[in-house]
Structure formats: structure tokens, C-alpha cells
Amino acid sequence: MDETTNFNKTHDKITISKIPIGDLILYFRVKCKHCGHHRIMHDSIGKCEGVMNKPCNSGCDNFSPEI
Ligand SMILES: [Zn+2]
Ligand SMILES: [Zn+2]
């Protein structure tokens, strides 16, 4: 599956779920209690991948929302 197909499928799922895109953006912008990076920087299992080619130096592997 190429990236465009995946993008379109995800977009369809979001549309069906009726979750506003703005809500998703806010969700992924929540910061991590452990390392201070946004949710978007963490992978699907919660490991932080760092920002802008810089690895996360806190070694965070379990995203925890700062709320
Ligand atoms: Zn983290
Ligand atoms: Zn991090």
C-alpha cells in the first residue's frame, strides 16, 4: 500500500468517524509528561522518536498525556 492510498483510507475513516480534524490535531498536540514532546512524536506503541532528527534523550517509551 502506498502512502497516498493509506492517506486516503485514513481520511475516509476519519470522515466516517465524524471526528473533526481540529480535534485530532489537538489530540496529537498534547504533550508527554515524561519527555515534553507532542503525541505525534511518539509511535503507535508510545515510544518517543524525537524531533527534527534529534532522538529523544529521555528515552521515553511510554507516552503519557500531560493533562
Ligand atoms: Zn514521551
Ligand atoms: Zn520525547
Helix-strand layout with pairing:
Blueprint: H1 3-17, H2 21-29
This protein binds zinc ion (2 copies).
One zinc ion binds at residues 32, 34-35, 37, 42, 48, 60, 63.
How would you explain this protein's 3D organization?
The protein has 67 residues and is mainly α. It has one domain. The protein is built from two helices and no strands. The chain is globular. The chain binds zinc ion (ZN) (2 copies). Residues 32, 35, 37, 41, 48, 56, 58, 60 line the site of one zinc ion.
Distance between the termini: 36 Å
Supply the helix-strand structural class. mainly alpha
Bound molecules: zinc ion
Mean pLDDT: 95
Overview features:
67 residues, mainly alpha, globular, binds zinc ion
